[in-house]
């Protein structure tokens, strides 16, 4: 039994020294590395994370909005084809069913715009929105959807059109 103790005692001491040494590393080095300056983020494009099936949080929210039943202002069957967010502007490209909104009256069109703005306003990377239908400007007698307009009240406007003001 004494031979086992003679062998085990140095092993326990070496193991203890090794474990003590592992916990005795300086902490400042990793913290300093984490605080190292980071290259500035370019504002040209926002990378929107993609979920399985090509959905993004923004596209998913818009798809749910279009699928709402009941008092939805959007023409039945309207689908979001693409969503592109660059420099804070979301360009929404809808299927041709969206064109029926141009003939549905000023109130319905206004409700559709408010619903889109409210949905996009939930995403801080989106400042303004613009709408196209199958890649072409959406033509409406009531509202200019082609000029990017703010998704939040009080946001600065461009082109003097305000929040999608009339043509």
Description:
The protein is an alpha+beta fold. It has helices at 2-22, 28-34, 57-67, 106-120, and strands at 80-86, 89-94, 128-133, 136-137, 149-150. Strands 1, 2, 3, 4 and 5 form a 5-stranded mixed β-sheet that branches. A hairpin with a 2-residue loop joins strand 3 and strand 4. Helix 3 packs antiparallel against helix 4 (106-120). The longest helix has 21 residues, at 2-22.
What labels describe this entry?
single chain, 167 residues, alpha+beta, five-stranded mixed sheet, 4 helices, 32% helix, elongated
Brief overview:
The protein is an alpha+beta fold.
Low-confidence stretches at least 5 residues in length (pLDDT < 50)?
29-34, 41-53, 157-167
Query: In percent, how much strand structure appears in the residues?
Result: 5-15%
Radius of gyration: 29 Å
Compressed to H and E, one letter per element, the order equals HHHEEHEEE
The major beta sheet can be summarized as:
5 strands, mixed
**Average pLDDT over all residues:** 75
Helix content: 25-40%
User: How many strand elements?
Assistant: 5
Shape: elongated
Tell me the layout of helices and strands.
Elements: H1 2-22, H2 28-34, H3 57-67, E1 80-86, E2 89-94, H4 106-120, E3 128-133, E4 136-137, E5 149-150
Parallel strand pairs: 2-3
Antiparallel strand pairs: 1-2, 3-4, 3-5
Helix pairs in contact: 3-4
């Amino acid at each position: 039994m004494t031979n086992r103790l003679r062998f085990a005692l140095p092993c326990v001491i070496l193991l203890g020294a090794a474990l003590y040494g592992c916990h005795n590393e300086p902490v400042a080095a990793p913290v300093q590395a984490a605080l190292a300056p980071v290259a500035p983020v370019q504002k040209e494009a926002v990378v929107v994370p993609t979920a399985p099936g090509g959905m993004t949080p923004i596209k998913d929210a818009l798809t749910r909005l279009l699928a709402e039943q009941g008092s939805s202002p959007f023409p039945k069957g309207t689908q979001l084809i693409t969503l592109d967010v660059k420099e804070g502007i979301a360009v929404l490209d809808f299927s041709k069913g969206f064109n029926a909104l141009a003939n549905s009256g000023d109130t319905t069109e206004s409700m559709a715009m408010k619903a889109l703005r409210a949905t996009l306003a939930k995403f801080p990377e989106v400042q303004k929105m613009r709408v196209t239908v199958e890649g072409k400007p959406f033509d409406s007698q009531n509202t200019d959807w082609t000029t990017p307009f703010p998704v939040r009240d009080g946001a600065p406007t461009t082109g003097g059109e305000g929040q999608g003001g009339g043509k």
